[in-house]
Amino acid sequence: MSTLAACLGLFLTAFFAATLLPMQSEAALIGLLLADSFAAWALVAAASLGNVAGSVVNWIIGAASSVSVTGAGSRCRKPVSSGRGVGIAAMGNGRCC
């Protein structure tokens, strides 16, 4: 197997593992590293790029989704701020109006 084929296979495994499919890209990476036939830096780079690309796809799916986390019948429109700053801490205990 060529280095290009190994990196492409590892990229695809990492990509699908980072999306919704339950796969073990770490096992594939370790197996290829233990084979000692391929450059370690190329395998790690392929696995990293695959994971990042899969995460970006998940982010795009989440951003494009119109499903509300609070549910269809919720009266909540705005999270209650605890006044503790910005970000997650500012949202309080997850309570709404």
What can you see in these coordinates?
This protein is an all-alpha fold and 97 residues long. The protein has a domain at 3-64. 54% of the residues lie in helices and 0% in strands. It has helices at residues 3-18, 25-35, 40-64. Helix 1 (3-18) packs antiparallel against helix 2 (25-35) and helix 2 runs antiparallel to helix 3 (40-64).
Counting DSSP H or I runs of 4 or more residues, the number of helices is: 3
**Content-based structural category:** mainly alpha
- Please give the alpha-carbon distance between the first and last residues: 59 Å
Round the Cα radius of gyration to an integer and report it: 20 Å
Mean pLDDT over all positions: 79
Number of strands: 0
Low-confidence regions: none
Shape: elongated
Helix content: 40-55%
How would you sum up the major sheet?
A: none
Order of helices and strands: HHH
Percentage of β-strand residues: under 5%
List keywords for this structure.
3 helices; mainly alpha; 54% helix; single chain; 97 residues
List the helices and strands and how they pair.
Blueprint lengths: L2 H16 L6 H11 L4 H25 L33
Helix pairs in contact: 1-2, 1-3, 2-3
